Amino acid sequence: MSETNAIDAQHVELTYADGTEAITDLTLTIPNGELFGFLGANGAGKTTTIKVLTTLLEPTGGTVTVNGYDVENESRAVRESIGYMAQETSVDPELTARENIQFACEIYGVSADDRATRIDDLLDLVDLADVADKSAKGFSGGMKKRLDAATALVHEPPIVFLDEPTTGLDPKARNRLWDYFERINERGTTIFLTTQYLEEADQLCDRIGVLRSGEIVASGSPTELKDRVGGAVLDIEIADPEETLERARRVTTEADVFDGAPIETTEAGLSIRSTAARQQGTELLVALMDAGITVTGFNVRDPTLDDVFLAITDGKDEGTDVTDAGATAAMEVTR
Ligand SMILES: Nc1ncnc2c1ncn2[C@@H]1O[C@H](COP(=O)(O)OP(=O)(O)OP(=O)(O)O)[C@@H](O)[C@H]1O
Fold this sequence. Notes:
The chain has helices at about 45-55, 75-80, 95-105, 110-125, 140-150, 170-185, 200-205, 220-230, 240-255, 275-290, 305-315, 325-335, and strands at about 5-15, 20-30, 35-40, 60-65, 70, 80-85, 160-165, 190-195, 205-210, 215-220, 230-240, 265, 270-275, 295-300. By secondary structure, it is α/β, with parallel strands linked by helices. It has 2 domains: about 5-220, 3-Layer(aba) Sandwich (Rossmann fold); about 230-300, Alpha-Beta Plaits. Helix 3 (about 95-105) crosses helix 4. It binds adenosine-5'-triphosphate. Adenosine-5'-triphosphate binds near residues 22, 40 and 45. It comes from Halocatena salina. Belongs to the ABC transporter superfamily. Drug exporter-1 (DrugE1) (TC 3.A.1.105) family. Keywords: ATP-binding, Nucleotide-binding, Plasmid, Transport.
């Protein structure tokens, strides 16, 4: 077993039989105990990556070890040492919560002596103890997801893969799952999570990797990534935007107080991301007012992960420090 890394992937490639290059050059190191978030637009290669890491697909290039085992030559050992919660739940609705976990214990070969305690412990952990003997048929989507996550943990794997675990859940159910993921992470379990909710990654993850076209293009803690997109975001709302927006944009370009930062138009006005947004924002306000444009809203805020994601997936961040070298540097900072 590797002493330091739960996952070590070096220059991984996965080309499907039809020639689709889903992963082109993926290098990723995840230390034990980390809660890692994997983000990417549809088709970026997230599910393909999870399938490689969980031995469901053999990489066509590069090397991967999970818990110190090679995914190609020691696939059985990898499988025995991981938990995997797929996008579709594997809960059997005809069984009770307890029976579902019991069944998972049998599949994973949990010894009969350990089973009863393990099942009670997991039911407690995911707050299903009071419905343990009820059939899963009547469970809400959130309860089924929690039960599914519990079944992925019966053999106490040091790492668990969660593929979009909260998609389709309401905010309350999502929050409960977040609590639960934090709890299992606090027990020392490494978590590899894919999600399409940036807020989820922001709240939960120690570190995030952003995937684009089968390569990691940015990596770091949520704060580092937000800092990296540069400064702050200035949102300006103007009266009568349909009539005035183009002129406001022209005035902003001519005022040139943000060193050529891109100006985005929104429904209500303009949005500018710049390191100078806090200091120079009022200068722009004056320029707009001098031009006879009525400003109805003016707000400087920190970038969100949405801004990060937008910058990266638009390719605007290319050529700065979001290359592999930048990503590695950021990883070192967070350890
Ligand atoms: N079995 C397959 N054969 C050929 N191409 C595939 C196969 N599965 C996925 N792909 C392609 O590989 C690329 C990556 O797909 P993948 O499903 O890994 O992306 P993803 O990031 O998980 O997307 P999503 O968020 O939509 O699930 C896409 O271009 C997809 O069309």
